[in-house]
User: Fold these one by one.
Assistant:
Number 1:
Amino acid sequence: MRTLVAPGRSRTGYVVALVVTTVVLTAVFVLPLVWVVLSAMKPAVELARVPPTVLPETWTPGTYAEAWDMMDLGTYFRNTLVVAVGTWAVQLAVDVPAAYALSRLRPVLGRGILGMMLVTLMVPAAVLLVPTYMTIADLGLLNNPLSLWLLGAANAFTVFLLKRFFDQLPVEVLEAARIDGANQLTMLWRVVLPLSRPILAVVSIFAVVAAWKDFIWPLLVFSDPARQTLSVALQRFAPDTPVNLLLAGLVLSSLPVVALFLVFQRHVLAGLTAGGVKG
């Protein structure tokens, strides 16, 4: 924004441009969410009206409770929670030690290993679907949460973020712990992890949100309706469910991740900016 309107030359123009940009971006992101929330509280007949109404003429907030009961969303919330929490735990258990090893232990060919990890980010996910599915099927893990936990274990982007953060940790603190007789595992658990809470919050939110909203992979591995996640279940209910009830289900399924981000947004910003200025 400062490159478009210089504050020193035109303070008023700068403020106007900033306000307009903020309002436009807020409207782009917020208005669709508001429309979904309000549309879920309209009767199906009013929702199908052309042109559509902005605010409901007949408010039916009970649509949310009806959608919860009709689609048995409690079961799918529980399934999705198991998948998300398990994916988060397995991912941190694998990626934190891997990033620490690449950052502090500096193994032979460590840079090459990290480079090969990052190359996997350039491979389209669709290319890996068939071989991954065949592997999971051969292991007998279909309709098992392990099929999603293991897939999210080695995340190259998470390893990269963690390594970059570990690289910025004060060497003096680690040297002091080493002089006190701490081994590498003790330093990781008692020194590095407490100092890494901001970046751990960031990668935790990324892991939970990605697992919560994932659709293609759960659709492939969970053929049993009783074990499906929210995203898959809502898609299965879509053809035979009134639109207002389906919208209510979509709103309810989004609430946990929105609440998670609002609660931890300060940690997200701190984690993403940590280590940006070295001094």
Note: The mean pLDDT is 87.
Number 2:
Amino acid sequence: MDIEIIISLIVFAFMAGAIDAAVGGGGLIQIPAIIGSLPHLAPATVFGTNKLASIFGTASAAFSYLKQVKLPWLLLGIIALCSFVSSFIGAASVTLIPVEVFKPFILIMLIVIAIYTFTKKQFGRVHVEQKLNRKMLVMAAIGSLAIGFYDGIFGPGTGSFFIFFFIRYLSVDFLHASALSKIGNFTTNLAALSFFVPTGHVLFQIGGMMALANICGALLGVRLALKYGSGFIRILFLILVSLLICRMAYQLF
């Protein structure tokens, strides 16, 4: 592999780790980078290699958030378990369900999320301390199952979906939602790798190289998120969702 390709993959992985740690959506950067550098790879191998690179950055971001942001362990357990199960099912369905059938629905959902977040100026700006109840746990389980399946079978924008869902239905701010999303993202990546590794759809040398860069980027992303808070994350979130909308619209039309 040419040194230029290696350097570009490392740079993109670093950028993906930083963005993903703050607002999710690292796949928006990392997956096109892998496809552009290695266009001969099968889609499952692209996704598997991306997951290997991402899981280390996600793990480091989740650990950093947990040291700084107080989160209920029962809620984290529900999110982790449901995300893992549904992501594994999604990964196993990669070769069975064409991702093209999802794209129109995903595009519509992203547009709705962008409009809602932009018009609701206080959305995600305030964290409401609540005691856990059955409704919150059920909503967390439903959201984690749906988003986990999506991440296993396709992936781009998963962190953004997690963040929006947690703010909307768990009444947390962007900072706490980002922390919760890292737990969900880590387990979805772990579940997907549980399928991709045994089936031979992971390039370990490339994925490992990108993983180191992803960790460095994730540490920077968490530091920025903690320093500048929910207002900063909200702006990044809107920018990322807008980019996702443009990319998916271009692919469709």
Note: The radius of gyration is 17 Å.
Number 3:
Amino acid sequence: MKKALLAGLALTAVALGISMPAVAATATARMSLDVQEGNPKHIAATRFADAVSEATKGTVKIRIFPNSLLGAESESAEGIRLGSIQMGIITSSVFTTWVPQVQVLDLPFLFRDDQHAVAANAVLTKALSDSFREKGFHLLGFSVNGARQLMSKDPIVTPADAAGKKMRVIQSPIHVALWKAVGANPVPIPAPEVYNAMQTGVVDFFDNTATNYLTFRFYEVAPNYTKLSHIYAMGAWVVSEPWWQKLTADQQTAIEKAAHDAQADIVPLQAKQDEEALAKTVAQGATIHEVKDKAAWRELMKPVWAEFTPKIPNADTLIPAIEAVK
């Protein structure tokens, strides 16, 4: 009845020569997250969804699905590309098959600190948007999921401490190469198997984020935690390109602004949650180590840059642009 009424009003307006304002169509998106409720990424996504609904007067609704309910990150990315899922915050390394330029984000010590990683968002988004679009993704930007820190049975503070030890790594050539360069023996193991691998002695140490150290009870099998921040885990905020093209220009603008604001929110949320998480692990017997001088680590990892940057498309322009960000 509502559609018939609108159609009747439109015909009447045409007959009387009156122009009617365009009515934005209602659009609904399912947003995939790999984290649980309460995680900074989930909090930021919720704020994003609320801001979009308010800015578009309810014409765009975003439903958030945490805990990998829509599939693991690789499955969600494929779903977004094909249009069966409309949105997601996906770890950047998942996109290397489609957009090999994102491999630069796995280079060790690319970012100076949290602030540098956040500030680089605009440069990364501008440089990579076209490449994402060509593969079916509209890129809304990047957020910092957290810095990778070392988690081990025995204390690891200097590269010499890691030499000869078995290091669990993600299944990435860059991660394998950088730990070989340090002198460790890298062992690629899927994330769900890390706890058991540490418990059974398959590996001696691994890297992950502070919140996960508590959430997944890694402190039980890796009681030593070392703040190295050698690689930042970056999340790509992506939208299915076909779905994006169905939106009005005003709806697109509202979504982009809300995403940008939410992405900036994650780092302070993450910092607060990391501090609280580490305090809880210390209460359970964990020991936190600080690396005061990272020069030795950087020096040993330099060959990784020399080996991989020639293989990464546009690395010669993208890396200097990131490094120039203040």
Note: The first strand starts at residue 27 and ends at 32.
Number 4:
Amino acid sequence: MKTWKAWGAQLLFGWMNLVLAVPSIYLMLGMPLVMRQHGWSGTEIGLFQLAALPAIFKLLLAMPVQRVRLGGGHFVHWLWLMAVLLLALYVGIGRENLIDQRAMLFALTFAISIVATWMDIPLNALAVQYLPREEQLRAGSIRSAALFLGAIVGAGVMVLVQARWGWQAPFALMGLGLVIGCLPFAFLRSKAGLQAAETEHAQPGFVADWVSFFGQEGAKQWTSLLLTSFPFIGAVWFYLKPLMLDQGMPLEEVAWTVGIAGGITGAVFSLLGGRLASFLGAARAIPIYLLAALLSLILLTVSVWAQLGPFWLVTSAMLIAASMGAVSALLFGLTMFFTRRQRNASDYGLQSTIFTLARMAVPIAAGIVLDRFGQVVMLSVLTLGVLFAFVLAWRVRHSVGASTEVLLRSQ
């Protein structure tokens, strides 16, 4: 693949990952500020987060994408179908201000969550199908950077847009971004159609499909990393804003530090982490990145325990953002490595479900520990979780690294 063509494809997939991240982040993380201003209770805001549940069912949503053929450009047509549905939902939710219509707002948000989750499957199946194996670590780093930028846009910029130009403006911008991203996929239809035709022959049942995924060399070890490498450091990031507020930092300073500077740092180190991993190889990169996450979390824990003050809190927050960006870039890239070209959608859906379940479960458990035992104990428990992930990564690094080398040679 020519360099300019590869970069064009990478930017296209990165843009679409950004476009799909923004609505969920805006509705889940940005909208609660508006809700609170309009008298929503804490319980109502908390229950509203259940609209994110479709993310854990990506495994099931992948089934029809893998098996129901929509013409020659199979995955592109699935992408466009989901895009049309998402645009229709933007029109529905943006037609009038629904902030006081709780049930309707939840229903439309839930529907947007389903369609955006569903659309993510053909999008990343196309990335696996179209990009050479040697480009997939870079694709993972670009996707990770897009998610960090999506957090800034969705939880920050879109809230400001809504405050300045009204309820409809964010959804109009999100719809425009979606249309701009979908049009270039017309040029990928021929390749998508060819790959689909090559794998059209009889496919095994769903359970056999999933079992065969774990039959890949190194897949069981990779799954253990997928379950442990991100959730603990991700949970720290989830609680970092309230933790820094409790340490006495002003709200505006916390917003700039974690929301803006942290997001930019995570995006930059996502790109750097993917680049560095291509030189180090997966066997070296996995434990190095997790060791960096472990050291940054130890620094945060000590800073909170010893009351070291804002400088060390901010420093540890930036280090956590950097290590989290590098870890997530590597995980997204390796997810593509372990997605078989004949099972693009189903393998990606299975891995995404495994990742999402762990990512959602750990913050819930951490919240319980925080309420019962306080910040230092919670941070200590999460530090032990990252330590466990590091030890596990050290033990399985050669198996996972050898598997990625095999996949690269088979390209």
Note: The longest helix spans residues 375-410.
